[in-house]
Write a structure and sequence with these properties.
Keywords: Endonuclease, Hydrolase, Nuclease. InterPro entries: Restrct_endonuc-II-like, tRNA_endonuc-like_dom_sf, UPF0102_YraN-like. There is one protein chain. This protein has 120 residues and is of the alpha+beta class. 29% of the residues lie in helices and 38% in strands. It contains 2 helices and 5 strands; from the N terminus they run H-E-E-E-H-E-E. It has helices at 4-21, 70-86; strands at 25-33, 36-44, 47-56, 93-103, 109-115.
Length: 120
């Protein structure tokens, strides 16, 4: 059984492999600031994509994507702006995606769902 930190790391690794298989180029994982963290930053065609990874082992608390509420979205948008400023990126096409991962009782991947433009 994984603790929360290891489970988060596992989710990000699963999501990274999944995104690479979908043609994304991973630029950075775990962009951290004192205001929070962006799980994955990737390139998908012309888009710079900020990816939030949500993993759950049961639906007791709802679908993982439901945890990315309005306030979480606003925090991720602010973190994306910090990233763009830090990297001096201007006029980029950006997008916010969510990767939802469900594990079975043995902590194997049960399903993965990619939500592109999740904040629209």
């Amino acid at each position: 059984m994984f603790n929360k930190k290891k489970l988060g790391y596992l989710g990000e690794e699963i999501a990274s492999r999944y995104l690479i298989n979908k043609g994304y180029l991973i630029i950075q994982k775990n962009f951290r600031t004192k205001f929070g963290e962006i799980d994955i930053i990737a390139r998908d065609g012309r888009y710079l994509v900020f990816v939030e990874v949500k993993l759950r082992k049961s639906l007791n608390l709802g679908y993982p994507r439901e945890a990315v509420d309005y306030y979480k979205q606003q925090r991720i948008r602010n973190l994306a702006n910090l990233y763009l400023a830090k990297k001096r990126i201007k006029d980029a096409f950006i997008r916010f995606d969510v990767v939802e991962i469900m594990l079975d009782e043995n902590e194997n991947v049960k399903s993965i769902y990619l939500i592109q433009n999740a904040f629209e």
